[in-house]
Amino acid sequence: MDISRYVVVPAYGKDYETLDEVKAAWEAGKDFQIRSIDRNDGRYMSIRDGLPVQIRFNKLADIYVWPESSPDAALDDQYLD
């Protein structure tokens, strides 16, 4: 994983079960919460921040990498099925 990529989860206790649901929420600008070991842990962010992310969803079992054209997006896609 690229060090500049935040791991985020759906905010406010939400969860998305499918890749289509999480993509739609991210692209609609819904809030996600940062999960990290730095001072940004717990802060909220969305697509409007323009930062590359890994989104954990489906009870944290699946990962969506954004932007999809990033070098590690293809690697992570193999674990979505």
Task: Tell me the count of domains.
Answer: 1
Class based on secondary structure composition and strand pairing:
alpha+beta
Mean pLDDT reading: 87
Spatial strand arrangement across the major sheet = 3-2-1-4-5
Low-confidence stretches: 74-81
Instruction: Sketch the major β-sheet.
Output: 5 strands, mixed
The termini sit apart by 19 Å
Query: Rg, please?
Result: 12 Å
The number of helical segments is 2
Which key terms come to mind for this protein?
2 helices, disordered C terminus, 5 strands, 81 residues
Describe the overall structure.
- 21% of the residues are buried.
- The protein has 81 residues and is an alpha+beta fold.
- The longest helix is centred in the first third of the chain and has 9 residues, at 19-27.
- The protein is globular.
- It has 2 helices and 5 strands; from the N terminus they run βαββββα.
- It has one domain (6-71).
Short description:
17% of the residues lie in helices and 25% in strands.
Topology:
Layout (H helix, E strand, L loop, with lengths): L5 E5 L8 H9 L4 E3 L9 E2 L7 E5 L4 E5 L6 H5 L4
Parallel strand pairs: 1-4
Antiparallel strand pairs: 1-2, 2-3, 4-5
